[in-house]
Description:
The protein has 2 domains: about 5-100, Endonuclease III, domain 1 (Orthogonal Bundle), CATH 1.10.340; about 125-300, Ribonuclease H-like superfamily/Ribonuclease H (Nucleotidyltransferase, domain 5), CATH 3.30.420.10. It is α/β, with parallel strands linked by helices. Helix 3 crosses helix 4. It contains 14 helices and 9 strands. Helix content is about 40%, strand content about 15%.
Amino acid sequence: MSVFKTVSDLKFISVFKNDNGILRVKTKITYRKDYESFLAPILLPGKCLFTRLIKSVHIENFHAGIQLVQTILRKKFWILRTRKTIRNVLYECVKCKLFGSKPMSNEPTPLPPDRVSDCDVFEIVVFDLAGPLFLKNGEKVWIALFTCAVYGAIHLELVRSLSSNSFNLAMRRFIVRRGRPKTIYSENGTNFKGPCNELSNLDWNQIQREDNLERMSRKFNPPTASWWERLARVITELLRRTLGNSVLPFEELQTVICGCESVVNSKPLTYILKKSWELVPLMFLIENCCLDVTDFEAIDQGHFQIELGFVQNF
């Protein structure tokens, strides 16, 4: 008993000494007909040479985890503070360290200047396409996603094709409603590069003299597309939860798209503290932030009874 330093080590277990002078633990299955080592396992302290058994069992069972090693050992031995002892032994296993180690993480890089500069809303814009979506008449449409790189606000347009002409029309609608951006980020798609090449052929010196129009800067930068690609997924998730397998006409789908736009623009930009105001992109777009259309939903004639349930789902 000298190897057990304190009485508390044996406080919650019933120990007896057999005819050979070996300390064993009485278990609840004492009256079962089985091997003595299983009915009354040998008591071992947490720190002794016999703990090498743990490493042997661990390796023989294909580098098993704590729970499995403990189960196997309990068939013959009762080690005090079993889980802690096994955890300490398994922590020294080189192979488990090799295969269980996490990859090294890079230090967080600072945001590019275009995402932290002081500017107006939609002055620095990211353009992307999501879809396709199917209309009731069988046609396909895509969602043109314009994202403000600084304030996180979005503007959505529906386009009927992936051509350069559709991109030009969507860009014109965006400019007349949200203002002319100074910088546009996009991917390297031909429908994005085509209009850029056509604009570069214009005489910008003459345009600036006559119309005082500043040339927009175009940047094709797919490696940094992760954050705005995530917004495209948010839009598709809202549509999937709201519409399911429903197929709508163009005008009704456009209405739902506008609802998705308002939901994302109402998403808080920062962590919400108790008793604090929510800072949302919508505050930078319009002064009147009331988006309630309950009265129009009440007079709906029944052909478009899809409630904007994605407000609660988001």
